[in-house]
Amino acid sequence: MTVENTSSAHRPCIGLTIGDPAGIGPEIVVRALCEPDLYQQLHPLVYADRVILEQTIEQLGCPISLNAVSTAAGGRYENGVIDYVDVGSLSHPVCMGRVSAEGGKAGMAYLECAVNAALSGEITGLATAPLNKESLQAANIPYIDHTAYLQARAARRQPMTLFMVRALRIFFLTRHISFRQIPDALDQKSILSALPLCELYLRQLGVDAPRLAVAALNPHGGEDGLFGREEIEVLIPAVERARASGCNVHGPVPADSVFHQCLAGKYDGVLSLYHDQGHIAAKTLDFHGTVSLSMGLEFLRTSVDHGTAFDIAGQGVADARGMVAAVMAAARYAAMVRHNLDLEP
Prior knowledge:
alpha/beta; Isopropylmalate Dehydrogenase; 12-stranded mixed beta sheet; 11 helices; about 40% helix
């Protein structure tokens, strides 16, 4: 990985959370912080328990030391050192790869501590390793995932997930719903609400005049109703109304070509209609290079696009490229997002 050096005074402080301590989160965070070039772009501050970091460093055999701090100002931020805030949730190592209330409680404690620091302005943004939904439920945490917690604590506008990989940027109109429910979930109101936010969030990332595309639902965009009427009855009217209001949006564009066109530069972003439609495109292009950005918060949060991988946790085989990409994306965009928070849709 080759990056340009940034003077220390201008490097953003990015908080890293290790996610569920029984998953691969601690490993990919420690591995990411073994990348010397990373320190040329940011000041990374980890929110974790010392015992978990020690356990992970021992498992990996990494030549890296720990520096406990109480605030971001106390960090050394140099190669070979992990600066961290000891959250104090766990006093003993965990059993790797297992769902537990203990792991769910600890993972949420790391996130809560980091979010407090981000809301106070102590750190510029967040890069998070994965939590486990079952462990959160076992701990009676009233949030199903990162997104729900961040929306409750830090939403400035309606949050949206944005996937970024190379020049491809993908927003999602719907999230985790059954495939059978997707057509019924599409309506003009939701699309007309989403498009101005897509435009705003791209502007917050430095895209001056975003060009958007809406992905079609049916093959070939429905072929004038031959393969479905969602394009005729919902998508086309919504796009036309959005364009009439000044939004530079096109479509619906058949999903088998719209993501390639965005990657090639025809569009700055695509509004995907459902989870897999956008996820397949991004992860096929570059699974480990795909970064998830949570937009619409008081700060930028980035994350890997995979889960806790309990099946390989603690084995020293987890791939940290996604975590490196998430941290570097936070370093690149977090300060810009904070600067542009007051932009209007």
